[in-house]
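Repro case for the chain-ordering regression, as requested:
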Amino acid sequence: MNGGIFITGARLIDPATGRETQGDLRVERGVIDAIGPGLSPDADDQIIEADGAVLSPALIDIGARASEPGRSGIENLDTTIRAAAAAGVGTLVLSSSSGAGLTRPEDIDWISFRALQAPIRLLGAARTHTPIGEMAEIGLMLRAGAPLISDGGELIADTRFLRNLLSYASAFDAWVGLTPEDASLSAGTIAHESAMAIRLGLSARPGISERLGVERLAALAELTGARIIAERLTTAGGLEALSTARKRGLELAASTPLAHLVFNEVDMGGLDPAYRLEPPLRSEADRQALLAGIADGRIDIIVSDHTPVALEAKANPYPDTAPGSASLEALIPVLCTLDADGQLPLMASLKALTSNPAELLGLPQGRLTEGAPADLVLFDPQSPNVYGKDGLESPAPSAFAGRRLQGRVLMTVADGAIVFARPGVAE
Amino acid sequence: MGQGDYSYTFPHRGLIAASALNRVDLELIFDSARAHLARNRREDKKHPSLKGLTVINLFFEASTRTLASFEIAAKRLGADVVNFSAGNASLKKGETLADTAYTLAAMQPDLLVVRHHSPGAAGFFQSTTGVSTINAGDGANEHPTQALLDLFTLGEHLGDVGGKRIAIIGDILHSRVARSNVALLSLMNADIRLCGPASLLPADADRWGASVFHSVEAAIEGCDAVMVLRLQRERMSAGLIPSAREYAAIYGLDHTRLSLANEGCIVMHPGPMNRGIEITSALADDKSISVILDQVEAGVAVRMAVLELLAGRGMQEMVP
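-- result from build under test --
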């Protein structure tokens, strides 16, 4: 194919500028060539009729786990990549806890090697520490192309070690993603402490565990000058602590998992292992606070927190199951549903999945402007569906399975090429 | 030239901290060291100015080169030398340091040379016993004779150190060598740069009168000398830095990085070196750049000068 891609009649949303218009967009040689109403295609352009569907920058997910490297699971890396492409993700930053962990520069090189064949942009976060708790070779991993450093959800309890790590990392000017929890309050717990969790007899952690975690990270950011992302922030108290610390001028950011924007502890009340997540599902007040935090920008990033867990790992009572949900393909349907229900405007939620992560990591993607990389997602925000009914790329158990959602991805473009298209969309 | 020619008497009872020295002190020490350096190259090296005096080398921390350097210095000056080192049972019997000090002082030594893992230990010996004491390294605090021999070597190669740009690269946080060097180099108005992993730099290093760098390339630019510090293996197991491999790749000194320095830039290392980690073998062995063995040679001469001055027998009949 020599020509470009011409998408006509789309609802163009650019979260970076907050602009929303009706019009056309033309892609050529991997970049957005032109945007506007009334454009005309070149003779050999492939023409896509958007029919009023939304066209936005492709999603940037900086928190999805894969089963590889070093392990095999229910998904292999190719499955994860296919699921991401089908989810409208153009840039996938694998969590540092993917597989056996991205702890050595060789692991980041392996990601770069696999990225050569991947249709979408594939990166890997550098793990903060090795399996035996020593500082990982973060400098070499950043040089190998890791866009950030992260504990991958494995809380670093030793504050002296964390101080050294943050101090060391500060010289590289990289963001460090850390789990905001108090180690001893959270250890061994599987639920959010509430009347319900106590009645169910679950070992639960109080919400203040996260608040203490955020305050600890803020104090260390102040001491070391490091830039910290409080990863997978899920409580109102944690968010409040973060906002307070930010007012002191500290370089702090936060990400929130998709599931916690939709579900609360009541969903977990039936003790269905599908809802066993880490961090656990919180109260409705917490969920409301997270939605408000994304709407007003206090939470920077939404992550899929995609965690493929083997079927057998969910085949036990709730407390004995592995936490995690396959969530990549729920991204767009959840954003559309929250928008349609008046819970969270699409512009704000897309921002947390496009321009915000791009800006944070210094990536050129995530913008709908002429000259920007042609990473796009076209989606129908209205079409109702039951999650998983029409099949998904990821075979792993999902907390969203069977949920009535609305909105589905029609087409994903990465680096100027169509990497996913629903039947009938780009033929 | 005798001490009288300076119309200044070396006023120090001991040498506990480089930061206590002034520029005239340095001139006295270096003039004498220069003469000793020349004599040390002759067949007959004896210069018995300390004849009849007893020097005790008291090393609570393992050392080969510094102990040997002090021992040779004292012996060439004709002193009687006794060594106690970490392996000696007598230093491990659990008595207080004060009792050790009183006991040794009772044997009427004239000079003590003390190395100890605790900052302040050398000063403690001197104030407890009243015996002139040379600090041969007290924890991460000071190692004044190392800084003196470094400054002497710098002077031999660069002339006046004032205004010269000198980078110290490595584990500044735990380095007594860096602290003593910064003291003397500031006194000489050198343009000092400190560089290392942020976890191995003191939080207040920018207030040491030096500029602080996290990038070796940036730190080396325009330098006239680079001092490379030894990376202790314990720093990895203590979780301060990731690995020797990463340290070598990001902070190690090699010819390529050194090409950013000024023409004629010299490279120094207090030893013992970790070849392939903080410095490449090729660079350490490059005689046109590396002055590491010059430092070792200067060490003996400088220590001879210090011993003489503290014994009040300096500058008698310098070069016959």
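Ordering looks correct now. The radius of gyration of chain B is 19 Å.
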